[in-house]
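User: Watch each token:
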Amino acid sequence: MKTVFIICIIIVIIVLLLSLLTTRKAYQYKHTVDPIKKPVNNQETQEKEQEKPTQNQ
């Protein structure tokens, strides 16, 4: 019974250490944001403007 208890404690400690290491590494990760693409030609701009609802009421 004593050996089973010791093995369980060791497993709990290993899982705790692995979760702490994983969380620490996740917080160190640097996220980046892709830049917004601008329309290439005037036709794309006109199409987007036509999709917008007008508020002249």
In short: The chain has a mean pLDDT of 82.
